[in-house]
């Protein structure tokens, strides 16, 4: 992809460095700015931030995104709170999958409910020669549904075995490299900070 094209799709406050997870759901879980293992510095505290994030995320088709943005009146504080809850639920579940906590089955059960609900409201539609579950753009729950359906897709894929967490922050990514493996969400941020710290400790 040409760089000028990829930059132009990012909304204010978001850049390529916010989309390093390798999957829209991981990029969504990575919408905290903490540089350590806390998750307090929220980057989607308002709807305009959430909508801006979605523009660069590849979660929705162009048509869906346009329709979501057009019907902004459907988005209220309750739905934004729901998105935050879902984000942290997915975080817990993926930590469990990465073997860092036990299976966390109550969390998984909650996510399964979200996925079932999203399928109940959504449609099974053809897109580029294959079929996918798509959210109902007219439902107030559409953002959550889009994320739940994307999560279902991720959890069924081979990528699950390549899920990793950054050694420094709480971000997740899919390690598609060979060899020793990727340790940082992004070499430009956590990787460089960790190297600088190691240097100071010597
Ligand atoms: Zn990191």
Q: How many beta-strand segments?
A: 4
Continuous helix count: 8
Q: Look at the helices and sheets and give the structural class.
A: mainly alpha
The end-to-end span amounts to: 41 Å
The proportion of residues in beta strands is 5-15%
Q: What CATH first level would be assigned?
A: Mainly Alpha
Q: What is the name of the CATH topology? A: Jann2411-like fold
Associated small molecules: zinc ion
Give the C-alpha Rg.
Answer: 17 Å
Outline the low-pLDDT stretches: none
Architecture (CATH level 2) name: Orthogonal Bundle
Most strands sheet: 2 strands, antiparallel
Helical content band: 40-55%
Domain Zinc finger CGNR: 162-202
Organism: Labrys okinawensis
Protein name: Zinc finger CGNR domain-containing protein
Pfam families: ABATE, zf-CGNR
What is this structure's SSE topology?
Elements: H1 3-8, H2 24-29, H3 47-57, H4 62-70, H5 77-97, H6 105-121, E1 123-127, E2 130-134, H7 142-156, E3 163-165, E4 172-174, H8 187-201
Antiparallel strand pairs: 1-2, 3-4
Bound molecules: zinc ion (ZN).
